[in-house]
Amino acid sequence: MQTVVQTLTWHDTWYLAPEIVLAAFTIVLAILDLALPKRIGRNIIGWGALLGLIAAGVFVGWHIHDLSTWEEAGKEPFRNLLDGSYRVDDFGNLLKLVFLGATALIVLASLGTTRTDEIPIKGEFYYLVLPAVLGAMVMASSGDLITLFIGMELLGITSYVLVAARKSAGISGEAAFKYVVTGGTASAFVLYGMSFLYGMTGSTRLSGIGDAIGNAVAESPAMVYVAFFLLIVGFALKLALAPFHAWAPDVYQGAPTPVTSFLGVVAKGAAFAMLYRIFVNTALYAYADNTQLRDDLYLALKVLAAAAMLVGVAGALRQQNAKRLLALSGVANAGILLIPLALDVTNFHASLFSEFIYYLLAYVLMNAGAFAVVAVVARGAKSEELSGFAGLYHRAPWTAAAMTVLVCSLAGLPVTGGFFGKLFILFGTVQTKEYWLAAVLLASTVISYYVYFSFIRQMYLRGGESELPVTVPVPTGLVIWICAAATVAMGFLPKPILEWVDGLFSLTTDFFSR
Amino acid sequence: MLDDLPILSMIAFLPLVGALVLLLVPQGRARLIRGMALAFTFAPLLAAVALYIAYEPLLGGEAFAEKLTWLSVPLNMEAGLSANGATSYRLLFDYRMGVDGISLPLVLLTGVVASMAALASVQIRKRWKLYYVLFLLLQTGMYGVFLARDLTVFFIFFEMTLIPMFFLIGIWGYFSRENAAKRFLVYNGLGSAVMLLAFLMLIATAGFSIEQTASGAALSFSGSYDVLAANLADPNAAANLNGSMFLSDSLKGAAFALLVVAFGIKLPLFPFHTWMLKVHTEAAPPVVMIHSGILLKMGAYGLLRFGAFLLPDQLRAWAPALAALGVVNIVYGAVLACVQKEFKLMLAYSSISHMGIVLLGIAALNETGFEGAIYQSVSHGLISALLFLIVGTLYERTGTTRIDELGGLASALPFTSGILLTAGLASLGLPGLSGFVGEFLSFLGLFDSYPWLVAVGVLGLLFSAVYVLRGVLGMTYGALPDRFAGLRDVRFVEALPMIALTALIVLLGVYPSLLTDAMAHGFDGALKLLQSAAGR
Amino acid sequence: MTMLGSYLTLAAVLFCLGLYGVLTKRNAIIVLLSIELMLSAVNLNLVAFAKYGINASLRGQVFSLFTMTVAAAEAAVGIAVLISLYRRRATVNVDEFNELRR
Amino acid sequence: MDIVFSQVAWLAPLFPLTAFAVLTAMGRGLGKAGAIVATAASLLSFVLALLIAAERLGDSAEDYTGRIEWLRAGGVVLHAGYEVTNLTALMLVIVTLVALLVNVYSLSYMKDDERISVFFAYVALFTASMLGLVLADNLLTLYVCWELVGVCSFLLIGFWFRKPEARAAAKKAFVVTRIGDLGLLIAILLLYWNMPNHALDYTSLYNVFHSQSEALSDSLTTLIALLIFLGAVGKSGQFPLHVWLPDAMEGPTPISALIHAATMVAAGVYLVARTFDVFEASPNALTVVALVGAFTAIFAAAIGLAQNDIKRVLAYSTVSQLGYMMLALGSGAAAAAMFHLFTHAFFKALLFLAAGSVIHAVHTQDIREMGGLGRRMKLTAWTFGIGALALSGVPPLSGFWSKDAVLAAALEKSPWLFAVAVVTALFTALYMARLFFLVFTGSSRGEAVVYVHAKESPAAMTVPLVILAVLTVAAGFVWTPWNEWLPGWLAGSGAGEEEAGAGGWNGVVVAASVAASLLGLLLGWLVYGRKGAAVSAAAAKAPGLVRILERKFYIDELYDIAFVRPLAVLGRALHVFDEVVVDGAVRLVGRSVQAAGKLNTRLLSGQLQTYGLAALAGAVILIVAIAGRRFW
User: Fold this and answer.
1) Positive or negative: CA dihedral A49, A50, A51, A54
2) C-alpha closest to that of D83 among D123, D139, D128
């Protein structure tokens, strides 16, 4: 059957406003960067990028508000563009907000720390971040394999360049190359899987696939399995889930610190968004027709999650380089973030998205904050080794305190966002009776105490050989403290966020309804 | 007059307030910092005493209970639930505080030991400010654990003791303090992780409650003790929720086993005890006072609280095992204590031995045993606090606490030695001192059901005599080595907490009703449950 | 359906070749090219499905067009990165790109 | 007749307790003044004791009991109470009297010690707890005081704490007696759970056991009796727990007199007498008591023959005499036992104090370095002589009468026990003679200087000697064949002793005992008393035997091998176990995690294609494991 292609109307541009804003800012800033004479510092472009991100964020917020008004009006709160290849719904919007916020934090932090010797062409960094976020946003709100793929590649390619931005250091180039190859291979796997998905169902529309997948499994299950497992492998590579994680530490170490935290937060989040879009819309949607497929796939996801959590923390045990350590803890956290998706949806447990986004938010905060601290410390100590943190308690007590909060959150100690994020995920796991997974999560948490202990030890129990105080640039300090404060706030009052998410998001409307 | 102001929260959070205030004081003002820390340590103690005076055993702590919904987090509802007529589906984190005959003595103990430790902290020579901030945070955690009435709140307070303790060990300890701290953190982290799993199991299966509102059934999960107790006690509770919630015995058993491990680590139970040896030897004496004086008691408290009040069947099923383990603890710890050369290690092992007696009391499953367990916890808390106080002063003067390196101190430090001797006698269970009452009650309680185990356990008293005298006499009696000739006895500041603790130990030994009366009726609910459990 | 089968087989072979290249070839250029090989396998798949698959439509072909363009961009970036790296290391041997480790 | 003083009997322990409190509060500064205070306190309680006894002399004085609730835990209600019976009244007099005398004596004996006030504080605490023990109306209260007297004895044995021997002796005393205490504790637990309505007081015991009620099975009764007896064995230094008592002589001599001769060690006998109903309910237990007593008596007497330390000789004789008392108890004659306890308290205290006065004079305890002191210190010699004769059972001194009663009881029980007792009597006389002659007669064997300066002790020390000597002579007449007042009076109440007149006038007994004692004395004179008799005469004749006796039958060595060493070995073994196995397991877990981490780090070789291969392997495993299940 031939569907009539719905064309893009002017009216629709309103729904694309955030994306358009970002694109516009990218172009303007690029031109600005060329036009501006050398003597003028490139921080202006940084501030511009920040402005763009905020503007986009405002529009997203506006959309969220619109949608909720529709909901009150009894209208289904989502909008299909290009007959469903692009969806503006709460799922997308919430994630977009997270991405934009995270990027804004990172950019703000980098305004303080990045020096010319780290990123020679600062402007480049700033106006390349925007298209990357744009890609992430597209991934978050696509309803079609093609658009998903475009978003993925937009994000991917720009981040390749960003990783390489630290021209001075050879490792940057090496990291970029490794990232290119891994990323390329990952995309190849994902695409190959997509192609089979399309082949089995005859549609690239997620909704179409969801409708057709049931029969497809009935006809030729093997092909469908092939499709999905290719996808899983591809995403496992992108998310650096164990044992697909080995590239992550290298890339994270080689990349400029702001880029690293961008990869750790936004790129991961976007990949998760894509994973949600595909799996919920197809496998979970087809649950009624075919439980077996879904069970197998989700079991695979659970296993991956478990492996990631354990390998991540275990690997981090012996790391001496702060960025590599955080990279590996990122592996573990990716595993944790994967759990909600992998859990069954039962009468009593349907809050997978709340669990996911809450922990994602907490993770964004602690990660961005931690990397900001790393950047500051690295600046002082001229190295990214843990030893750079030695005696931080004397040299910069407040920064040390903030770092302690962030580390506690990473370790999932109360009362922090990380704690409640983990708590909700655990509760979901227990509700769906996946006790083994809960046990693994807890075990990895306990091991992670050892890991994060190394930060604490350096900061409090070691006298720094250089007792000279660390200078914290205002913007970076601001970010650090925003992150720390927000982390604590999320620990004491998770309610507002969750109420909000619960009010906006609903599996049925955001994914299933056509 | 007390029941109109939230005294329990005051007790729990005054130290926290103190910590926050302390943060604002400049590092240099050592005296001011110390004074404020003392003030904020004694304040909750006074509050606790006021509570003790106002507490009516017959009425229980109802008058003081506090409850306010801290978080009520929405859980997304699937079509299935709304089909069952549920209109809202939430996860409740209630902030519930309460006091009863079990927690009251321990709260008092916390107050006393913490205050004495604060006084003893004169020995702390570096990083005053951080020390006292952490010290106060730790107190909030400890009070909270004993006062909480909701699993999540309990867990949070429990974890709150973890971090400050970790720093206190790691920064102000002796030579291999980092190792000890790391061990403490990971081992106890493991414990609390296991505990959390058990808690979540309970919440997710037994924590539900349905209230019919005008708009329909409001379904919620919470960890509040009352809800859990109600559901767990009600055999057909599962049916209340169209069967899809399950309270299978196997699950209850698993949860209880997890709890035994979790609190066993704290207690410490025989195979899980090695971590606390390091803490005893490596941490600074005031910190050990807190650790061995209070933190260990959380294990006993948790077992009683969640065993006797929530999972009586399982406690009953486990009682023989617990009793046996208790005896193992007693004898194992005592025998090991007999051969230690390091006094602190000897004390550590004796703690293991004494906590074994607590286990016996719990395993007795009758009021006598339970009260014995709590009494023993309190008295051991006081005694070991006193002992480590002395250890601190001795180490300060002699630079060692090895039994074989010391001797004849009675001629150089008569006062300290006298107190040390008294403490030793108390810890070997001399009647007239607090140690005897707890031990006697525990044995008495258990004897009814397991006379032979008691007969073996009593050996612990014999061994305790052996190692205590070996240690104490070895250090205080005999000829005084010349290098100690110039030692000066304690100053008044140091003597004060010693005298106070000794006085308490004697008081509790001579007039035990002080505590037992407060504990009376504290276990009525649990005993009822246990009876019905026996019935089933 | 036989046609489809053979196309898919060919695509599979290509994909595996590409993967093999990525995993074994020492020359960075070849590695990048192998990735392209994998992507072209995908394209072959898409086109084949678009022709012979159930409810065949232009979608697959459109998809493949997108894939090619993006692949081109990716390759370009890849080469650029490689060149900058080559400037510094004076080698394109993948084995020697191991400054980042442990 | 009204019994006003009995009602305030609780004051008796209170006086010394207050003294103790004052002395500890004041601390060392008090010095001599403290001593005065303590002595005054003991005087007060002595007066009170006399008054109580006086008002009970009339036969029909009923018992008085007063109690308070000590602790209520759930169902358990434990009382603290006191009870005044004729028996307790008797004990009160003994204890307070000896305590008073010892206090007076110590005023001068200890005057040069800078810790004198500490000493008196301990003594006061001891007196208080001993009186509490005597007055207690139930077993728990008794147990509490029981432990307290133990601690005081421990403290006083170790009073000269700088001496390593003192430290060792103190530790030994505490630990060994504790073994017995645990028996008592278990007995109490058993009684608590088996007595009707959990009563622990003597009255209920009397009701339950005496009326042969079937509340408790025979075997249980026997078990309880034996456990109680175990406690007595520990305290009264009966075999096999006697080892601590001789070592306890490390303490100051007045303490040996007070605690380790007259009062505390007798507490075991008192305990058995107090709970005699339990024993009567179980004949087997009684037999055990008798046997242990008899054996201890002869065993200790034999050892006493070969000791060279004046105090140790007395110590072993104490053990042996306590054996006598146990024998009497075992033979069912509680009154006889109490009678012997009564007399023994006086003459043994006398002997110890006299010995103290000797030691005070010559600063040695080794009788081989003494001799001829009789000429230098007449009073001491005379009093000591009286005590020795009394102990040897020479009529008409008190020792004769009480020993007579015991022997009679033994004969009733069985001729063998009687025989043993008689032989013991002979030994007793022998070693007392040896002691007396070696110390007081002949010529000095120590350094001449010491001998020259040795002189009679001051009045504060001699006066108590005289008083005790008088009592030693007189005390026996409360129970003579023609005046059976004591047993009747005791039977009047308390321990309830129908077959009181166990003694009676029995020609055989008298003849045997007199013969034995005289023979012993004669032997002693022949070997040690005559001119030119060598100190080591006996050793020369039978060296092997003497060595065994000197080494006290190697009991200490035996225990060392049997218990002390194994415990230490076990401890070390467990220590290793703890380090290696238990902690090793923990470390192993940690290590394995670390190893996993290392493995992961090894994977991160920087070789991109290695990463790829690892990933591929993982992918294959995953797919085969999960998708594979469906298709194969």
Assistant:
1) positive
2) D139
Is residue D468 within 8 A of residue D392, CB to CB? The reply is no
Q: How far apart are CA D12 and CA D390, in angstroms?
A: 30
* Cross-chain Cβ contact C23/D601 below 8 Å: no
Q: What residue segments make up the domains of chain A, in order of their start? A: 15-512
The answer to whether the bond into A415 is cis (omega within 30° of 0) is yes
Find the helix or strand (DSSP H, E) in which B274 lies. Answer: helix B274-282
Distance from the D375 Cα atom to the nearest Cα atom in chain B, whole angstroms? 38
C12 within some domain: yes
| Element spanning D65, H or E | strand D64-73
Give the span between the Cα atoms of D632 and D617, in whole angstroms.
Answer: 20
- Rounded CA separation B345/A192 (Å): 64
Spatial separation of the C-alpha atoms in residues A365 and A265, rounded to whole Å: 9
Q: Give ipTM to 2 decimals.
A: 0.88
Q: Are D320 and D298 in contact (CB under 8 A)?
A: yes
Provide the residue count of chain B. Answer: 536
Please tell me the distance from the alpha carbon of residue D56 to that of residue D5, in angstroms, as a whole number: 10
How many independent structural domains does chain C possess?
1
| Cβ atoms of A142 and A87 closer than 8 Å | yes
Q: Are C74 and C10 in contact (CB under 8 A)?
A: no
A155 forms bridges with which residues in the sheet?
Answer: none
DSSP D564: I
Nearest in space to A360 (alpha carbons), one of A294, A264, A287, A437: A264
Structure tokens belonging to residue D257: 């007199």
- A178 CB neighbours in chain C (<8 A) are 97, 100
Give, in order, the Cα–Cα distances in Å from B292 to each of A461, B280, B296. 23, 8, 6
Distance from CA of D600 to the nearest CA of C (A): 9
Q: Which residue in D120, D180, D407, D149 sits closest to D262, CA to CA?
A: D149
CB contact D606 to C (< 8 Å): yes
Query: What residue type is D95 in one-letter code?
Result: V
Characterise B5 by phi-psi region: left (phi > 0), alpha (psi -120 to 50), beta (else).
Answer: beta
**Does the pLDDT value for residue A160 go beyond 90?**
yes
Structural contact between residues B231 and B206, judged by C-beta atoms closer than 8 angstroms:
yes
3-state secondary structure of A344: coil
Nearest-angstrom CA–CA distance, A277 and D105: 100
- Would the pTM of this model clear 0.80, i.e. be above it? yes
Chain B residues contacting A via beta carbons under 8 Å: 71-81, 84, 91, 130, 152, 155-156, 159-160, 162-163, 167, 170-171, 178, 182, 185-186, 189-190, 193-194, 196-197, 200-201, 203-204, 244-245
Tell me if C18 is assigned to some domain.
yes
**Per-residue model confidence as pLDDT tens digits over D292-307:** 999 999 999 988 888 8
Q: How does DSSP assign A83-101, residue by residue?
A: TTTEEEEHHHHHHHHHHHH
Which burial class, exposed, middle or buried, applies to D212 when counting CB atoms under 10 A from its CB (0-12, 13-18, 19+)? Answer: exposed
**Whether D252 contacts D109, CB under 8 Å:** yes
Q: What is the CATH number of the domain that holds C45?
A: 1.10.287.3510
Residue C40 is part of which domain span? 2-91
pLDDT digits (tens, 9 = 90+) for D516-538: 888 888 888 887 777 665 666 66
- Paired with D82 in beta bridges are D66, D136
The whole-angstrom distance between B370's CA and the closest CA on chain A is 31
Q: Residue D366 — pLDDT band, cuts 50, 70, 90?
A: confident
Domain ranges of chain B: 7-76+91-214+217-535
What residue type is assigned to position B99 of the chain? V
What beta strand segments (E) does B9-65 contain? none
Nearest partner of D221 among D269, D176, D285, judged by Cα: D285
How does pLDDT run across B389-412, given as a tens digit for each residue?
A: 999 888 888 888 888 888 888 888
State pLDDT tens for residues A421-432.
999 999 999 988
